Amino acid sequence: MFSTKLSARNNFMQEGFSRLWRGTNASLALAVPTVGIYMPCYDYFRNRMEGFTTEKSPTLTPYVPLVAGIIARSLACISCYPVELAKTRMQAFKGTQRDVKLPGVWKTLVDVINPVKGSSNGQNYRMLWTGLGAQLARDVPFSAICWSILEHTRRSIFSFMGEEPRAGSIIGANFTAGFVAGGVAAAVTCPLDVAKTRRQIEKNRDRAMTMTTRQTLAEIWRDGGMRGMFSGAGARVGRAGPSVAIVVSFYEVVKYGLHNFHQQ
């Protein structure tokens, strides 16, 4: 937590107040389509698989959130990855002068696919998915861990409440479950997040296209050991917990409202 505060303070002192919100427009451009794909897909796959396992193989039902989370997150990640790449590069961008205009989402993506000597356009567009393997290697375990914890915690809270779900209890149960699940999943998958970031900000195109997550993790371990593997863990946990809590709470209360509206 101390390192998170120190990092924020250094960013503010060196590059001004706007540095703390660098990449926000890319984050917003990423959040809407990602959640729009991720959450409905998770609900769909969970409901279908739970219906199947309950009837055919009840012993597999507890693993349904894990599998549904993996499938839904993979679809959302692959679909929206270029914007994720732009967001990471924008946040990592460092202007040499205070009056240097920071690149936007579109400019960042154009720079990624800028023609390279000796390469075809097809190869250039592949650069938009640079580091996708590392992103999936982080997001798939994160989603599996997160939903496994979240579903169990949420059902336990509702069972403890022992009342008909209402908007307030839905928000409270989902926020609490999401906060816990997001924080735990973020802490466990932090090394994979460090590897993903390093691959996304790699400037050498040939190296970026050939790097693997395994090689990147080995480099991180060689350069910084365990401390390097969990670099930024405090900031990641501090962001992931509230983020998951807010998204899941909002999604579930909107579902509840729409369900009641259609019943009336």
Automatic annotation (TrEMBL):
Solcar repeats lie at residues 60-156, 169-257. It is found in: Mitochondrion inner membrane. It is a multi-pass membrane protein. Its main location: mitochondrion. The chain crosses the membrane at residues 20-40, 60-81. SUPFAM superfamilies: Mitochondrial carrier. PROSITE patterns: SOLCAR. The keyword Transmembrane helix applies. It holds the Pfam family Mito_carr. Coiled coil: none annotated. Keywords: Membrane, Mitochondrion, Mitochondrion inner membrane, Repeat, Transmembrane, Transmembrane helix, Transport. Gene3D superfamilies: Mitochondrial carrier domain (1.50.40.10). Belongs to the mitochondrial carrier (TC 2.A.29) family. This is Mitochondrial carrier protein MTM1 isoform X2. The gene is LOC104784683.
